[in-house]
């Protein structure tokens, strides 16, 4: 039997309707159709071919990406694609490039932080790509601490302009995507100075390059920051360095929704919180959570298919060896990641709806849910990116030696993905933001009832004193038992930290001293959100034979896997006995055996094309070995029998007639 037959057999074992699961994964039939159509459009167009990328040099790779982006823009216009379709098209092209910044950051920054007048002027230009923008916030010496940025924007009364300046080397903008070579404009974050007074960091629209010949404008020095981790991964993007030498922009190019500077040089703070200036980061963090489920599902799809094809040991009487997916150790590493991909998918959908709700409230000048939205996006961004980065690397290991080949698709995926733990808010820094929110919520509880994702803190009294009543492994197959366990763990960890901080005379000192515990408490809170969201999703109608049942299994796998992994927390907070923790682990093993027959069908439900996976190991048809061989033969080193350099550097060594004694 060949890999092709193995996967065919695996697909026959499925206990649920795969087509219906595809819809459940996508969110709706319409969402599935749009994504499916765009995936096929990209996969079937030779312009979007990706297999030559690993052999290209940086310049060729960059140019090739520009070519694809230009062609994609033509398709978007020629085919009159909707915004949603265009988003999926860019996603399936699968190469980071300047358009990510244009659509995910530049346009949202204009939308979220521009005044109505500014939006009327700049949005049409950006939306039709007459200008190309980036988001220039981070500096050489300042990233996480936005208030610490050094770039200055000084108001000049006489000319009614701002003077944008980089006073030091360390104030150079450093990292913004698309900035080195493509962007014509940037939203530049700088410290506003009026008459010698500092008014905090604000965003300014600054033109970097001529719209005539693309040359840099006077006073602007811009370039690429150099190659990044991994070959192809992020090196298709021109992350840049940018310095300003007293560049002048009109006053009306400061983003003026949150605060304004008048012609007279008066600083006016609107009635909206200053944190709205951070709104672009909040909206991108939500996109990043959604991207996590895509990247993890991709790695899991590759590792699961390959695990069903790969056989090692266990052959009896010359029969086939055991499929590695049947090893319990393989299952215990792989299936939690499969479950996590679904969990992240559902929590990203939920986060999107939370974001929509917050946006509507902001329009109505209701800012009450902003802190919670910030904590949720920051925390979930941190949780999902960390788990996804680790998960991709685990999938590489699950594929043994072949996982290390570029043709497995996993090394490039990892290299592309891992900076998500850093950009848009470094993960630990983000978890500390969650901790601030939680500690504040606890401290305000005497006069303010916690709501939303923090509402369980309002049930602190029972949660502090309850004990788990699970007695058998089956008792763990109960959503309320699971939620109660996660709520209790989170509440107890948060309250413990809060009480210890309260003992410090200086609360900030206490917060800093307890920061490692606070990060763990925040993680517990965020895991509770993911688990509860999964459970809530299962309360909705999910059509299709066996679909809901399969998702229920995955939901329990996700929750009990976390419980097992963090059992130290659950035991230390005194909610569980070691016997109950052990019962959870027993149940987890039983659940793995329920996932096993459905594993291939579950990864098929992601509906990933072979083009998107770009993995010989993850091919839909399972024809792994012949294609691995074929991919290897295509390596440029195999172009000739005698490689360049052999005659020059190896032959002379082989031909020298040295005696051993002379060595
Ligand atoms: C195989 C190859 C495959 C290739 C595939 C390619 C496919 C490509 C597809 C791509 C798809 C998706 C990806 C999306 C695009 C991603 C592009 C990524 C580009 C990256 C861009 C960036 O990184 S931009 C820079 C980001 N920078 C940051 O995030 C900085 C982080 N720092 C901060 O946010 C703040 O400094 C921090 C919050 C840490 C502190 O702020 P500060 O003002 O000092 O505030 P505090 O004093 O701590 O707090 C004051 C109060 O404000 C509250 N608060 C803080 N932030 C917010 C907020 N955002 N909203 C609301 N409230 C906020 C805080 O809680 C305090 O509240 P309190 O009540 O007073 O306690
Ligand atoms: C691929 C990529 C693309 C990017 N694109 C852009 C872009 O388009 N535009 C843009 O403006 N920026 C961009 N960035 C920059 C990115 O936003 C920053 O790197 C990120 O915000 C982290 O900041 P930093 O590099 O200053 O890390 P640092 O904050 O210096 O982190 C270093 C270490 O210090 C720790 N640390 C920092 N502060 C604290 C604290 N208060 N408490 C405890 N520990 C702390 C962190 O946990 C980390 O371990 C990009 C970065 C990458 C890697």
Helicity range: 40-55%
Total of DSSP H or I helical runs spanning 4+ residues? 23
Query: For the record, what is the CATH homologous superfamily label of the domain at 106-271?
Result: Butyryl-CoA Dehydrogenase, subunit A, domain 2
Ligands present? ligand LVS2NKGU, flavin-adenine dinucleotide
Indicate the proportion of strand residues: 5-15%
CATH architecture of the domain at 106-271: Beta Barrel
| CATH fold type of the domain at 106-271 | Butyryl-CoA Dehydrogenase, subunit A, domain 2
- Give the CA-based shape: globular
What Rg do the Cα atoms give?
27 Å
Low-confidence stretches: none
Give the number of DSSP strands. Answer: 11
Q: How does the major sheet shape up?
A: 6 strands, mixed
Assembly state here? Answer: single chain
The assigned structural class equals: alpha+beta
Return the average pLDDT rounded to an integer.
96
Q: Distance N terminus to C terminus? A: 53 Å
What's the CATH class label of the domain at 106-271?
Mainly Beta
GO molecular function: acyl-CoA oxidase activity; FAD binding; fatty acid binding
Binding site for FAD: 138, 177
Cofactor: FAD
Protein name: Acyl-coenzyme A oxidase
């Amino acid at each position: 039997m060949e890999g092709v037959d193995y996967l065919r057999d695996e697909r026959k074992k499925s206990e649920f309707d795969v087509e219906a699961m595809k819809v459940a994964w996508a969110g709706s039939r319409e969402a599935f159709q749009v994504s499916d159509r765009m995936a096929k459009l990209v996969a079937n167009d030779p312009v979007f071919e990706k297999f030559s990328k690993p052999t290209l040099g940086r310049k060729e790779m960059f140019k090739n990406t520009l070519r694809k982006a230009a062609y994609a823009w033509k398709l978007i216009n020629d085919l009159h694609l909707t915004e949603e379709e265009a988003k999926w098209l860019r996603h399936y092209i699968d190469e980071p490039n300047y358009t990510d910044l244009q659509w995910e950051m530049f346009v949202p920054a204009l939308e979220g932080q521009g005044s109505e007048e500014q939006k009327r002027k700049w949005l049409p230009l950006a939306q039709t790509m007459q200008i190309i923008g980036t988001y220039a916030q981070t500096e050489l010496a300042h990233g996480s601490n936005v208030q610490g940025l050094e770039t200055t924007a000084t108001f000049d009364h006489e000319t009614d302009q701002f003077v944008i300046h980089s006073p030091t080397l360390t104030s150079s903008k450093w990292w913004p995507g698309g900035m080195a070579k493509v962007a014509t404009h940037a939203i530049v974050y700088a410290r506003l100075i009026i008459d010698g007074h500092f008014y905090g960091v604000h965003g300014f629209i600054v033109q970097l390059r001529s719209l005539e010949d693309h040359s840099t404008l006077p006073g602007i020095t811009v370039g690429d920051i150099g190659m990044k981790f991994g070959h192809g991964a992020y090196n298709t993007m021109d992350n840049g360095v940018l310095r300003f030498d007293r560049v002048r922009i009109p006053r009306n190019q400061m983003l003026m929704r949150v605060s304004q500077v008048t012609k007279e040089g008066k600083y006016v703070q609107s009635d909206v919180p200053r944190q709205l200036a951070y709104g672009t980061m909040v909206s991108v963090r939500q996109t990043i959570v959604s991207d996590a489920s895509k990247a993890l599902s991709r790695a899991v799809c590759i590792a699961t298919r390959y695990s069903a094809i790969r056989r090692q040991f266990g052959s009896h009487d010359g029969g086939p060896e055991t499929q590695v997916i049947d090893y319990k150790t393989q299952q215990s590493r792989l299936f939690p990641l499969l479950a996590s991909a679904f969990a992240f998918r559902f929590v990203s959908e939920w986060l999107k709806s939370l974001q929509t709700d917050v946006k509507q409230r902001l329009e109505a000048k209701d800012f009450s849910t902003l802190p919670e939205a910030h904590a949720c996006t920051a925390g979930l961004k941190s949780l999902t990116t960390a788990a996804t980065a680790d998960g991709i690397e685990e999938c590489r290991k699950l594929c043994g030696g072949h996982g290390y080949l570029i043709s497995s698709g996993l090394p490039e995926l990892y290299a592309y993905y891992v900076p998500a733990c850093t950009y848009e808010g470094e993960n630990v820094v983000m978890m500390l933001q969650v901790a601030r929110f939680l500690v504040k919520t606890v401290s305000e509880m005497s006069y303010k009832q916690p709501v939303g994702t923090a509402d369980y803190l309002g049930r602190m009294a029972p949660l502090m004193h309850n004990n788990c009543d699970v007695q058998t492994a089956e008792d763990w197959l109960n959503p309320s038992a699971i939620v109660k366990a996660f709520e209790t763990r989170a509440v107890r960890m948060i309250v413990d930290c809060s009480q210890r901080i309260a003992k410090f005379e200086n609360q900030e000192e206490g917060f800093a001293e307890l920061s490692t515990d606070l990060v763990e408490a925040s993680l517990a809170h965020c895991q509770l959100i993911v688990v509860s969201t999964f459970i809530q999703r299962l309360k909705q109608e999910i059509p299709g034979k066996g679909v809901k049942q399969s998702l229920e299994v995955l939901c329990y796998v996700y929750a009990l896997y976390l419980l097992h992994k963090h059992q130290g927390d659950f035991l230390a907070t005194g909610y569980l006995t070691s016997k109950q923790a052990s019962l959870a682990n027993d149940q987890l093993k039983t659940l793995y055996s329920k996932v096993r027959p459905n594993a291939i069908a579950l990864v098929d439900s992601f509906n990933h094309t072979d083009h998107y996976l770009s993995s010989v190991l993850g091919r839909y048809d399972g024809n792994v070995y012949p294609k691995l061989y074929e991919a290897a033969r295509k390596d440029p080193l195999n172009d000739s029998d005698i490689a360049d350099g052999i005659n020059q550097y190896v032959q002379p060594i082989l031909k020298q007639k040295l005696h051993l004694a002379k060595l």
